[in-house]
Each structure stands twice: as C-alpha cells, then as structure tokens.
UniProtKB/TrEMBL annotation:
Cofactor names: Mn(2+); Mg(2+)
Cellular compartments per GO CC: cytosol
Keywords of this entry: Amino-acid biosynthesis, Branched-chain amino acid biosynthesis, Cytoplasm, Leucine biosynthesis, Magnesium, Manganese, Metal-binding, NAD, Oxidoreductase
Protein name: 3-isopropylmalate dehydrogenase
Free-text comment on the cofactor: Binds 1 Mg(2+) or Mn(2+) ion per subunit.
UniProt site (Important for catalysis): Y141, K186
Name of the gene encoding the protein in the UniProt record: leuB
C-alpha cells in the first residue's frame, strides 16, 4: 500500500517521539512491502518561530491532502507569555477543527509489566481496558473568549448535532467491545451538560438498543476512575472533561508517556498523537518515553490505513519491550532506565522478531 503521512513534530519532546514513531513505521513498511511517504511540516511554537503562525496554511493544506497525520506535541515556556499574540496550542486546536476531527479516542489498557509505575494498587488495574471518547472540536475550548478591564470569560457551547455525532461514535465503538457506555457530564450545574445528557440518552436509546448507557457526573467520575477502573468500557465526554480525565487515566497505565490517541471525523484524514504534551522539563535530553507516540502510529495504521495486522504487530512489539523491562525514566527509577533511542530500538527489534515469526507461520 502507498500512503502519504504528514508528520508534525512540534515542540519540546515532540520531535524526539515522532522520530521514534516514524522509525517504527518505516520498519513496518519495509517488512510488509508498503510505501509510506513522510512529509514533515511545521506546527506550534516551531511554526510561530518560522512563520509567525501556529498553523501555517501550507501545513494545513498538506494535511488535507494526506492519508494521515502524526503529531508530536506543541507548546513550551518560550511561547507561554500570557500576552503573546499567538500561542502554539492554537495551532493544535485549529488543525483539529479544520480537519473536522470531533472524536478523540484515548485507549487505556495498563500493561502488567508497567503496573509498578502506577500509584494505583495492582489488583485494581488487572483487566482494565477502557477507551475515552473525548469530544474534540467544541465546548469551552472553542467558545468566544473575552477579556475586559475587570475580568474574562470563556463561553461553553454545544449544539445537538455536535453531541449526537460523538455519542454515536462512542456507541459504535462500544458495539465492537463490551457494549457499555458511560457518558460523563456536569448536568447538575451546566446547561450544556443537561443538553448532553438528554441527547446521549435519546441517541443511545433509539439507535443503539444493544448498548447500555449510564450517566456519571464528572467529579465523582474522577474518583470512580481510580477506585474501580475495571468497570469501564467506553467513556464519552465533552472536550475539557475528556482532557482532564485522560491525564488522570494515564496513571492507571503508569505514565503519560504510554497513552496514544486517534482523532477522527467523517473525513478521510485522521490525526494521531500521544496524549502527553511537549514535556519541557525533559526535552532535548533523549529520555522521553516514545511508546505513546509509537502506539499512536499503530492507531494510524489501524484507523486511517486499515492495516490491522501491522497495527497489532506494533502493539505487540511495545508489549514485548515492556515485558523485557525496557523502561524509560518515567517508568523506572534510577539506573535501570533507558533513553528514547534504546526504547525505540527495543520495539524495532521485537517488531522484526514478530514479523519473522508471522512469516514462518504463513
Ligand atoms: P506534559 O504532558 O508536557 O508533561 C507533564 C509531565 O509528564 C512532565 O513532567 C513531563 O516530563 C511528563 N511527560 C510527558 N510526556 C512524557 C513522555 N513521553 N516521557 C516521559 N515523561 C513525559 O504537560 P505540561 O507540562 O502540563 O505541558 C507542557 C506543554 O505541553 C504546555 O505548553 C502544554 O500546552 C503542552 N501540551 C501539549 C499537548 C499536545 O500537543 N497534544 C498536550 C498536553 C500539553
Ligand atoms: C491535549 C492537550 C491539548 C488539549 C492542549 C495542548 C491544547 O492538552 O491534547 O490533551 O487540551 O486538547
Ligand atoms: Mn491534555
């Protein structure tokens, strides 16, 4: 298969982890006879430095023409002046919106070998397998922002259609899993949440009678997610709640550096990125965990290119690397930790092994 993949490294550890993911994709292409063409473009702080814009028109155009987009992370102290006219994060929000990527899938499945890195007791983590479907192009992130002499406001808005489509996506996903959706809101306070609950109930009830839907308020959800994570299958929620709950959920897996994501819409282009940020505190030191970015590349193969076997091979290779104790510093203390490069090489090694075994089997 031939595929055009746009790579947006971004800032901080973004270039370090996307480099790792591209190496893995190249290995997959070589091994399975695919031709992946990679085009690197600017976004975020790097784009602001070069062009003055967080999402240059050229980048967006190339993304529109691509089969898939792989992104690292954007942002950092250099561009964080509250008075700055443009911020790196605006580039990320703009690309999600422009490509219509309203559903952000964030799977969380703690790996037994990494459970030691989680602050949660192992017996609570065994068997956890959930996906958060985060609404990605609406809510308070995109509402009108106002600053006056005496205050500021961010408007939170949702339309019925925006809620319907993301709930549908979550219900479809639940059908391929354990058939259970929990919709998270703050309906006891927010009008947008009351609408969310009403629409979710109607969509699930009328279109997905085989899927069970429950509602949970976001504050208690933050607690239940850690107290009984095994009970969740698909969690669907609005933009900001999903952002916060998934960083929390990364502690089930053991590190932010382990969680990938897929941003999807009705269009053909998907965007794939680790859920973590640019990690300015460790950037440039070659110690970032590349697994979340590599697992995002696996999601890219699955969702945008339909290469399920290749996606599975990458996931298995990461799993083997973890089994072998190949941990970056976020997962292992002190001397035993390896750098980004060694972790990536471990994945490449296991990937080639797996492919070889698969070949022998055929
Ligand atoms: P962050 O996710 O960058 O970092 C939080 C903590 O997790 C840090 O201690 C960091 O070192 C660690 N961490 C994150 N990813 C890691 C990895 N792969 N390996 C090892 N450790 C890792 O969040 P933050 O510090 O709140 O934000 C820093 C910047 O990143 C901000 O400018 C923010 O806007 C931006 N950000 C961007 C994205 C994105 O581009 N998708 C996501 C989140 C934050
Ligand atoms: C994420 C990030 C972004 C978000 C920021 C950088 C705009 O935190 O992808 O989770 O909040 O969506
Ligand atoms: Mn986030």
């Amino acid at each position: 298969m031939h595929a055009e993949i746009v790579v947006l490294p971004g800032d901080g550890i973004g270039p370090e982890v996307t480099h790792a993911a591209v190496q893995v994709l190249r290995a997959v292409a070589r091994r399975h006879g695919h031709a992946f063409a990679f085009t690197q473009c600017l976004i975020g702080g790097a784009a602001i430095d070069a062009t003055g814009q967080a999402l240059p028109e050229d980048t967006l155009q190339r993304c529109r023409e691509a089969d898939a987009v792989l992104l690292g992370a954007v942002g950092g102290p250099k561009w964080s002046d509250p008075k700055a006219p443009v911020r790196p994060e605006q580039g990320l929000l703009a690309i999600r919106k422009a490509l219509g990527l309203y559903a952000n899938l964030r799977p969380v499945k703690p790996h037994p070998a990494a459970m030691g890195a989680s602050p949660i007791k192992p017996h609570l983590l065994t068997g956890v397998d959930l996906v958060v479907v985060r609404e990605l192009t609406g809510g308070v992130y995109f509402g009108q922002k106002t600053r006056t002499g005496s205050g500021a406001s961010d408007l939170c808005e949702y339309t019925i259609e925006e809620i319907e489509r993301v709930v549908r996506r979550a219900c479809h996903l639940a059908r391929t899993r354990r058939g259970h959706v929990v919709s998270v809101d703050k309906a006891n306070v927010l009008e947008t949440s009351r609408l969310w609950r009403e629409v979710a109930t109607r969509v699930a009830g009328s279109e997905f009678p085989d899927v069970t839907l429950e509602h949970q308020l976001v504050d208690s959800m933050a607690m239940h997610l850690l107290a009984r994570p095994r009970d969740y299958d698909v969690i669907v929620t609005e933009n900001m709640f999903g952002d916060i709950l998934t960083d929390e959920a990364s502690m089930l897996a053991g590190s932010l550096g382990l969680l990938p994501s897929a941003s999807l819409g009705e269009g053909r282009v998907g965007l794939y990125e680790p859920i973590h940020g640019s990690a300015p505190d460790i950037a440039g030191r070659g110690i970032a965990n590349p697994y979340a970015a590599i697992l995002s590349a696996a999601l890219l193969l699955r969702h945008s290119l339909g290469l399920e076997d290749e996606a599975g091979a990458i996931e298995l290779a990461v799993s083997h690397a973890l089994d072998a104790g190949t941990f970056t510093a976020d997962l292992a203390a002190g001397d035993t930790a390896v750098g980004t490069r060694a972790a990536t090489e471990a994945v490449l090694e296991h990937l080639l092994d797996t492919c070889y075994v698969a070949e022998l089997r055929d």
